[in-house]
Amino acid sequence: MIEIHRCGRNTCSRGGLEHLPESVSAVGDDEVMWVHLTEPTPEEEAAVFARFVHVHPLTLEDITKMRREPGAGAHFPKAEEFRDYLFVIVTPLPPGLGAVAAARQGEPRQSLPSASRMLRRDRPQLSAVVMKNALITHATASLTCIDMARTFLERHAESAGRGPDYLFHIILDAMVDEYAPVVDWVAGQLDRLETRIFTQPTRHLISRILRLKRVVTGMRKTLILEKDVLSKLIRGEFELVDEREVVYYRNVYDHLVRYTELIESAREMVSDLGETHLAAVSNRLNEIMKVLAMISTIVLPMTLIAGIYGMNFEENVWPGFKTEWGFWFALGLMALTGVVSLLFFRWKKWL
After folding, report:
1. Where are the domains of the chain?
2. Which of 111, 142, 226, 233 fits as disulfide partner to 104, beta carbons 3.0 to 4.6 Å?
3. Which CATH superfamily is domain 2-274 in?
4. Which CATH architecture has domain 283-347?
5. In this structure, are residues 88 and 228 in contact, taking their beta carbons and an 8 Å threshold?
6. Would you call 46 helix, strand, or coil by DSSP?
């Protein structure tokens, strides 16, 4: 699907493929055009990247990577400058994940499996070609950040006059803001897991920790790569990013740095939780072994007494061996040894 926004002075018109000019040179100097493709067909891609604007073959190869190689996943985030355009690739969160994470903050058990599956699946790819008076975006799925940018443009049509670089900043800003509820969800999961580790260190709990570790590792990898892309955009080394817009990109970069630091802390905490879980399980096993050892120590002298009195000797050499109170004498002796053992353990503070 192709969606075209053509903006002039304080007005924006919206249309489909039929509103696409023959070439980018047909866009006036006082106009800004935003062409967005969502899961396009090869014919729609050819209409934009072969007829409307000619891009480098390597650029087109990166843009269409997920369609040509369905199992390969999205391309790594990057930023490259060509003679007539700036090419940027980012990998947003799966559609709707931010809303899911925000809605499930209060669900300590049920939210983890569904959200972790959403984070582990193939991430969508968003490619952008920024030119002097046109912005072309290509998405492999319907993205929340694109919807937010579209809504912003409908409400503030005059903002398009700032140029394609400003429109692209709006998309990046919306994309980065989606990380906020997901990072909060991860922090909430870690707090709940930390509490449960000391009360119920079960096998199911360690599997949840490992799933969350995969989620955090994947987010950290993406955030680091996207931070490198934003760091290039804020250094002013690209001519198509106006100097007055650099400050807006720097604001997006600051948010991305904060989320990266939070995810880095979460990664360290997940690793610590794994070690803490092993220590808690080991400590619990030690407590169980201690109780069993105490029981064995208490029962051992009783067994010894029972074994001695059960020896097959006729001679009356043991106290109470052939008396009517001998049985009770043996039981009392066993009880005495048990009490003495318990008092000894208590004196040693082993109990």
Report:
1. 2-274, 283-347
2. 111
3. CorA soluble domain-like (3.30.460.20)
4. Up-down Bundle (1.20)
5. no
6. helix
Measured distance CA(324)–CA(330) in Å, rounded? 12
Return all residues near 333 (Cβ < 8 A) that are at least 6 apart.
305
Distance, CA of 130 to chain centre: 29
Contact at 8 Å (CB) between 23 and 50? no
The residues pairing with 5 across neighbouring beta strands, listed in sequence order, are 14, 34
- The structure's pTM equals 0.75
Which tens digit of pLDDT belongs to each residue from 215-263?
A: 888 888 888 888 988 988 888 778 888 888 888 999 999 999 999 898 8
- Token pair for residue 224? 């680091």
DSSP SS3 for 230: helix
CB 327 within 8 A of CB 305: no
Residue 240: both structure tokens together? 């198509």
Region of 86 (left: φ > 0; alpha: ψ -120 to 50; beta: rest) is beta
Alpha-carbon distance of 342 to 329, in angstroms, equals: 20
- Ordered alpha helix ranges (H), the chain: 42-46, 57-63, 65-68, 97-103, 111-120, 144-155, 164-177, 179-197, 203-234, 243-309, 326-347
The one-letter code for the residue type at 214 is R
Model confidence pLDDT, tens digit, residues 168-207: 999 999 999 888 888 888 888 888 887 787 777 777 777 7
Token pair 């699946």 in the structure block, residue: 121
> What does the mean pLDDT of the chain come to?
81
Single out the residue of 32, 15, 16 nearest to residue 24, CA to CA: 32
Instruction: Transcribe 100-132 into DSSP letters.
Output: HHHHTTT-TTTHHHHHHHHHHSPPP-EEEEE-S
